[in-house]
Design a protein that fits this description.
Elements (H helix, E strand, L loop, with lengths): L7 H6 L7 E4 L12 E4 L9 E4 L6 E2 L6 H6 L1 H8 L3 E4 L1 H8 L4 H18 L10 E3 L13 E3 L5 H9 L11 H10 L4 H11 L4 H10 L4 H21 L1
Parallel strand pairs: 2-6
Antiparallel strand pairs: 1-4, 1-5, 2-3, 6-7
């Protein structure tokens, strides 16, 4: 479905009341990162409170956690939106997405993950590489990294996350993509479809590989075919 992204102006023009729905779009941003988005929403006293946007293709109602006015006053929220780390959408689009195939299973996955973290009695492990906006003042330039990868501060780790290591010379496919394929091919169709939606960004070569090598996943393959058609149309329009 076609989603209309909303700007800060759109959100402000809709008044102080109403909901704000956002999607985690960090993978599609210029940073090409995976993980939760943690955004500081200060209190009136300046005390930081965190808005967590899960790593999921499902939309998240930010106003279920904070009042709309406080969210829009957050510098980090505004910068996250402008930099494409999150995407704001209409409530109607959010509800339409929440009714898509696989949404129920994805909601269950998020609930199970949240319960697992609470049961562990501690924050996520460092190796989970959550995404956090740590320097809103530097998002327009400077020497500091505007998006911090918790547990992956070393340059080599950050570059591996973004580049996914070097592609195989014969196939042109990266090791992290092949690891993704090896995982989803063992999953049922709905789980594979949700994994595809959560990963977000694929090259046409990768999509064609998935299309040709997931024979037991009809819903996933149909979504892949649709993406290939969209990419072809976009490429033709750019010529």
């Amino acid at each position: 479905m076609a989603i209309k992204p909303l700007s800060i102006s759109d959100l402000e023009d809709s008044g102080d009341r109403g909901s704000i729905w956002v999607m985690n779009s960090a993978q599609k941003s210029e940073y090409e990162l995976e993980g939760e988005i943690l955004i500081n929403i200060p209190t009136a006293q300046g005390r930081p409170e965190m808005l967590k946007v899960p790593q999921s293709w499902l939309p998240y109602e930010a106003t279920g956690r904070f009042p709309k006015k406080r969210i829009l006053e957050s510098v980090e929220f505004r910068n996250a939106l402008m930099k494409g780390l999150i995407t704001a959408i209409t409530e109607a689009d959010a509800h339409a997405i929440m009714n898509e195939d696989g949404a129920r299973e994805e909601r269950k996955r998020l609930r199970d993950l949240d319960q697992h973290i609470k049961a562990a009695g501690a924050p996520r492990k460092i190796s989970d590489a959550n995404v956090s906006i740590t320097n809103p003042q530097e998002l327009t330039g400077g020497n500091t990294t505007p998006v911090d990868i918790v547990g992956g501060r070393e340059e080599s780790v950050a570059s591996q996350i973004k580049a996914g290591a070097q592609p195989d010379e014969k196939t042109g496919l990266k090791p992290n993509f092949m690891a993704f394929y090896e995982r989803v091919k063992t999953q049922d169709d709905t789980s594979a479809l949700n994994a595809l939606k959560n990963k977000g960004r694929f090259s046409r070569r990768e999509l064609r590989f998935l299309r040709d090598n997931l024979p037991n996943h009809p819903k996933t393959v149909q979504t892949i075919k649709s993406r290939l058609v969209e990419l072809k149309k976009a490429s033709q329009a750019a010529e």
